[in-house]
Amino acid sequence: MGVSHFHSSLRCELRIFQAKNIEPKSPGNLFVRYYLSVGNNKRIQLNSHEISSKSEPIWNESFSLECSGADESVDYLKQQTLVFELRWRSTVPVLGKMGKSQLLGRAEMPWHAVFESPNMEIEKHWLPMDSTNGRVLQSLKPPSLQISMKLVRGPSFVETEKKKNKRKERDGCGCKDIGGGYNCADYELFALAAAMEAL
């Protein structure tokens, strides 16, 4: 069984715009938590900034993640979902600590939907959320979250490494000779002397 080499580079641009049909029963802060699968049954958890539940639930917040991996990794990603949770947290500290957040609604966006969309982009899409019984008034429609997602394929990892190696060959170690003929060794000695002098 051979070792997989990197073949693909992928950037995911995610924007969380706003939520609707939210009316918490008590004051606090709202935020969006989302989970990205990274393989081996592991996932990354990210949170938007918190906003007061008394204000309009508008985040207008962007995130961008870049990754490189084998083509098999992209195929694995296409089978996964991106999970969004709308959460509420009380702003009243209990025993000097902020309380845990509570789930208001949950939605999933299948990655394959993004891959299969025109230009691998979904713009200002409303995701209906499964509402949890609890802190949202039941007279409302289920909460919804407005998002945009875009996937951008970049140069392969192998191509990027080749460009880096060519640049190193052309530039030597990356240091440019500056007017007095200094080179890397001179710079390292200068940095070491400056550090010793600071002590």
- The beta-strand count equals 10
Strand content: 35-45%
Spans of 5+ residues with little confidence (pLDDT < 50)? 173-199
Task: Please write the string of helix (H) and strand (E) elements.
Answer: EEEEEHEEHEEEHH
Helix/strand structural class? alpha+beta
Indicate the mean pLDDT. 76
* Global outline: elongated
Determine the fraction of residues in helical runs and give it as a percent range. 10-25%
Main sheet specs:
6 strands, antiparallel
Distance between the termini: 53 Å
Q: Whole-number radius of gyration?
A: 24 Å
Number of helices: 4
Furnish the topology, listing elements before pairings.
Layout: E1 8-20, E2 29-39, E3 42-47, E4 51-52, E5 58-69, H1 71-78, E6 81-89, E7 102-110, H2 111-116, E8 121-128, E9 130-131, E10 144-154, H3 157-171, H4 184-198
Description:
With 199 residues, the protein is of the alpha+beta class. The protein is built from four helices and ten strands. The longest helix has 15 residues.
List keywords for this structure.
199 residues; elongated; 4 helices; disordered C terminus; single chain; alpha+beta; six-stranded antiparallel β-sheet
